[in-house]
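Predict the 3D structure for this chain.
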Amino acid sequence: MPSSSHIRALCLLLAPLVLGGCGSMRSTSDTLFGLITPYRVEVVQGNVVTQEMAAAVKPGMTRAQIRDTLGSPLLADIFHADRWDYVFTIRRPGAAYQQRRVTVLFDGDTMKSFEADELPSERDFVSSIDTKSTKGGKAPTLALNDEQLKALPVPAKGRVPEPSSAPQGPAREYPPLEAAP
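Done. Predicted structure below.
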């Protein structure tokens, strides 16, 4: 009959083998036993600035016009009042990590210069973060085929009507918030 010291020694020798076997059951895609995938948080910070937005920014624009075009800056430092920094980062499961920087320099209230990393177009940006449509291994088709083009209605000839500026939808009336004096 083995003594308790022999059993302890045997357990100490087998423990690394057993624990090493548990580590090999973990797959390389961060799943446990190939069945359970831990939840990964999607982290998005800052403003997305695309090529189309950057093309709309011109020297001489005011701060308000820049804010309307690009949004509020992520960094507006009181010690560098003539500099706005737009930093964008996205960390999304199934998509590549992205980080971009855009710097707008002002002279008083007007824009002096615009510096940016390489910016994607809107379409390129959306396709780079779209993980649902590419899971099957095939990217979605964005163009119409010949059959779909033939099925489209023929545009009316002549003057194209301008879209109405009034909002469309049901008219609603709301009661006053305060009673009249």
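The chain has a mean pLDDT of 78.
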